[in-house]
Amino acid sequence: MRRFLLGVIVVLSLLLQASATGHGPVFAYATPVNSQGEWSFDEGFLVRNTALGSQVTARSLFTYGFTPHLQISFTTPAILTDSPMPRSRLAGGDDFESNIGWRFHHQVKGVGTRFESTAFGGIVVPGPQTGTGAFSNLKRAPGFNGVLVSGFASRSHYLWLGGGYTRFADRGDDRLPSTFSYSLAYGYRPSVLRKDYPFWDWRLFGELVGEKDSRIRQSSTPVFGTEAHQVFVGPTTLGIYKSFAIEGGVQFPIYRNVGPLYPRERIRVAINVSYFLFQHGQHTH
Q: Which of 105, 177, 185, 117 is closest to 147 using CA atoms?
């Protein structure tokens, strides 16, 4: 627990040096993409705590919108403190990523209400960290990931349901686990907190995320005890101030089925800060 508290202090101290704008929930998948000509820069910090210690991860995200419905993003991770635990796509930071986001369905229904669906896909490259536990001697290769998420957004309510799949290639008969991930997020924008600049504009979310990892393959053989399936739920919040935003939240496990090589996670804490810059066009999230 002392390591966990230290991790939280590290996150908060880094947060004080950053500026922010998120587009949706903290942990779950969502449909928004950057507007045409919009650059956004996000810095996220995550603490995952277990009885054997905590993992603190920093992750930088750079995104550019080509059109109102097409964007490209790049993710760079850094694990500040490591601990043996299942890999996570929704609450991770282990891998470099390059993704294309395409909002292929966008239907406006009434004033300020829209139904939409977005597909994300790209390349995943394992980070420089060798990992701990079952991952320490594993030879790693790049892979791919794909995500599909749908939902609706209005001036006061948001609802998104999404799912994704990540698979890595073999290297020397070794392979990182494949991951099926899914999420459900509901957001509410209270009228009392619905403000325009120069005031903060706030949203509240309830988020459920789940991830099911396959076993590690080493020397062409699945490694017993490296499978995992966990589901987390918890509250988050998002505040926007002009071109800056800050979001954060906590999640607690409601289902944990992990192999004997992993400890069970007890809590996740995440904070994300961002800044976006328009070259041309309008902000259309």
A: 117
Residue 285 lies in a domain: no
CB atoms within 10 A of CB 5: 12
Structure tokens at 119: 């597909």
Helix (H, G, I), strand (E, B) or coil at 14: helix
Residues in the chain: 285
Q: Which residue has the tokens 């910090």?
A: 45
DSSP characters for 132-175?
SGGGTT-----EEEEEEEEEEE-SSEEEEEEEEEEEEPPBTTBB
Q: Which residue is listed with tokens 């997020």? A: 185
Query: Is the pTM of the predicted complex or chain greater than 0.85?
Result: no
CATH of the domain at 173: 2.40.160.40
Q: In this predicted model, what pLDDT tens digit does every residue of 108-158 receive, in sequence order?
A: 887 778 999 999 999 999 877 656 666 667 788 899 999 999 999 998 999
Rg, C-alpha atoms of the chain: 19
Token readout for 80 is: 């500040």
- Answer whether 176's CB lies under 8 Å from 169's CB: no
